[in-house]
Specification:
Structural class of chain B: alpha/beta
Number of domains of chain B: 2
Radius of gyration of chain A: 28 Å
CATH class of the largest domain in chain B: Alpha Beta
Protein name (chain B): Putative DNA modification/repair radical SAM protein
Protein name (chain A): DUF4130 domain-containing protein
Organism (chain A): Salinicola corii
Order of helices and strands of chain A: EHEHHHEEHEEEHHHHH
CATH architecture of the largest domain in chain B: Alpha-Beta Barrel
Number of strands of chain B: 10
Low-confidence stretches of chain B: 217-223, 412-419
Radius of gyration of chain B: 24 Å
CATH topology of the largest domain in chain B: TIM Barrel
Number of domains of chain A: 3
InterPro entries (chain A): DNA_repair_put, DUF4130
Largest sheet of chain A: 5 strands, mixed
Number of helices of chain A: 10
GO molecular function (chain B): catalytic activity; iron-sulfur cluster binding; metal ion binding
Largest interface: A-B, 85 and 80 residues
Helix content of chain A: 25-40%
Mean pLDDT of chain A: 85
Distance between the termini of chain A: 85 Å
Strand content of chain B: 5-15%
Distance between the termini of chain B: 35 Å
Oligomer: heterodimer
Bound molecules: iron/sulfur cluster
Amino acid sequence: MRNASPLPPSCAAWANDFDEWRAQARRLLHAGVPPASVTWHDGNDGHDDLFSSLELPPTLPGSTPAAIRIGRDQLTLLGNAARYRADGHDQPRWPLLYRVLWRWARGDAAAMHPADRDGRVLHQRWHAVKREAHHMHAFLRFHRRDEARGERYVAWFEPAHDVLDLAAEHFADRMGGSRWIIATPHGGVGWDGSALDYRAPCPAAWTEEARTAAERANADEEHDLWRTYFVSTFNPARLNHRVMTQHMPQRFWRHLSEGDLIPELEARARHGGQRLAQESSVGRRKGKALPDARTTLSQPSPDDEG
Amino acid sequence: MELIDKLSILADAAKYDASCASSGAPKRSSRGKTGLGSSNGMGICHSFTPDGRCVSLLKVLLTNFCLFDCQYCVNRRSSNVPRARFTPEEVVRLTLSFYRRNTISGLFLSSGIIRSSDYTMEQLIQVARLLRETHQFRGYIHLKAIPEADPRLLEEAGRYADRLSANIELPTLTGLKTLAPEKELDTIHSAMSHMRQRIDAANDDAERDAKRLPRSANPKRMAPRYAPGGQSTQMIVGADATDDRTILQSAQHLYRDFRLKRVYYSAFSPIPERPAGLPQAAPPLLREHRLYQADFLIRGYGFRAEELLNAPGNLDLEIDPKLAWALAHRDDFPVDLNRAEPAMIARVPGIGLRSVQRLVDLRRLRRIRYQDLVALRCRLETLRPFVVTQDYRPTDAQRDSSRLRQSLTQPQPAQMALW
Ligand code: SF4
């Protein structure tokens, strides 16, 4: 058994992103280096490149590098779990991924199953990443800028995980020929109508422009129409704070032009508005009952008065 | 009247339609093209109002003038509400503006009946046509199908819309007769049947094209799609005395006979100038919630309405319908997760469809242990009496159902009386 051979001397590996990790992991696996013998360094942690070269120990006698086969689903799982930004008490991503890959390569197929102790973490991370990409598709807001070259849209967003590229693809499909930029604390991306332009770090001018737009809800006057819509489509008789915050966590409200309306609408609903589904300002307008057309056929039809 | 005032009135008038889904559309992209918009089958909720409901589409009425006098409706002709009417261009302008700012994924357009059903339907189609043809809009469009309109118009609507819906609102003949005298259940059903035939035919064509034509085929030669997101409908809950069993049987029938994608349930919300005979009570939200759960069990888990409610009446408000069914069928439990058919595992309360799939995958690799249910985040307190794993058997399997029920009933926040 392989385990019977003496442990190789420990080695250090460094990766900045998933592709780099994959290249390193492949070599380590071929060299038969077990997870416990690798110290991984993550570009995200702000280390300098002291460890930028991978020092492989000499191949162990008796260990035959076998071809590693990994399906597309497994690769997707690993790649997307790697987008998760681990914080303080989470385990760092590269050692986790390598341990799973190591187990998988040795025939332990359960390593990537959601009920496994490692697989479970991967699936939870992938789930969190998917959710955050979805948040970005949903809650990002563009603000219009009119320029000599025509209109352009800018957005500021603070994603909790590395999903900027997923969002960029989504918005390139969605916005067609319109030009836009998205600025985030970890980088930015622009679209000129035909190609994506990634920048890391985010250019200061982009950050400045996007943050300013996001912080002033009325910087783009069309957001007034949106706010009106938001108020009217709300049904005060169904007030449900818990379900709303569950789906739209409070951290997003700050950069939504309707965000500041939420507490106000809730307060109004609690103080009487809940009696009716109708928005109170609509109720205060002058109403109009219509004649029964069947008895007043000669009357002008009601829509002519709209 | 200013556009902003019209919006305020016509969004308020449209909120009684529960649907705001933007899912089920085919993949479309505007990358490198003129025009705007995409869809990928997945819906997006761009915001949530404080009622916890998803805002995915611009949901407005073209006008809330209406010739009809449906008693449950805020826009009925006898109701003294402010009235307004958008021009088709105004709706287009709002849709595109909101869409560019990423506050919506499309439009859900409905309308009061003005002049005639045909005229109203033509107006709705006109908006969709402007969006699709003049502005090359590839986002989501849901149009209300006016059942009384000429079938030719429903034909046309389906070529622009991702989804069409004709609302049943009240599932019984008597309900319609008393509360919506101008509507006919037969007319609604025949509109649904017409749409079903067109949707089925378009799906068959699309399947054939997908098999026969190479990917590079000229899209113009492909079969024109017809409402690829299918059709849906809505039933009001609590406006009249109809019970849950009738509602669910009606839904089951709609799914089977017209292959509806979704049936929505809308707890009746109090409206201004309530006509006599309609409740002035808070909307029955918990009841609505139980109906959605039961509906999901019918669509996704293979339950029949009659299994969930074997006699006339309403669903249990205290416990969810799956748990209620399990408690009434103790002989079928506990279920051995290492042996049972997937369909039976799906009937265990506390285990959802995704976990069923994962358990089935896992037991191909090794035996299932109790710890796996913890890792899969199943609802342990609920499922405990109903499962057997390699290392676990329920101890309270012998306890009688009413005591079990008591121990499983968490104190529910009662439906609050609001005033
Ligand atoms: S037809 Fe009936 S439900 Fe529709 S808007 Fe008119 S009154 Fe309301």
